[in-house]
Target: Ribulose-phosphate 3-epimerase
Amino acid sequence: MSEYLIAPSILSANFARLGEEVDNVLQAGADVVHFDVMDNHYVPNLTIGPMVCQALRDHGITAPIDVHLMVKPVDALVPQFAKAGASIITFHPEASEHIDRTLGLIKEHGCQAGLVFNPATPLSYLDYVLDKVDVILLMSVNPGFGGQSFISGTLDKLRQVRRLIDDSGRNIRLEIDGGVKVDNIRAIAEAGADMFVAGSAIFGQSDYKAVIAQMRRELAR
Ligand code: DX5
Ligand code: ZN
Model:
């Protein structure tokens, strides 16, 4: 399997000094910045938009920025985030009227594209677009908040998606988001994930480097 990516969710960072937080977590060994966009409509919380993504780029962040859109509608934000420096843009298929079009829009704007599945969202949304996704993101909590517990049924769903990806022969990242911690990351990897979002598990500790090193140790075990 390809290398594992650790993607801290900045939802749990200190927003009053976000640039510094992102610098610190990248220096601590993170691979990707996970950027949670919530609109108080698709999910019951309100966070950050393209201006903040642009501000991180202007601050000098060069690592990939993984924009997780928890918004409805989706399309208008795609060009804005691409312009603001997003590397990956994922969205929830039930929040888009035209899934194929939205995936195409993301690619046209030079970003990698992905679909996000809530715990109860069926995988059948993938049936006709598997050849168009670069990332499949499984939510292991209901979206909207950091700090929730991992829903264990997601492990079976991960195994199913892992089989789909392997059978397709395509190079698709399998990302997991919600409740990822040092003590469950290995089981999650064994179920097939290769990209791990972790918010509270990382930003909730004072030593980001120690947590990320522990996660990597678990993954290498
Ligand atoms: C939840 C967000 C997650 C969240 C994860 O809707 O998509 O990215 O920040 O936070 P933890 O790792 O604390 O569950
Ligand atoms: Zn997220």
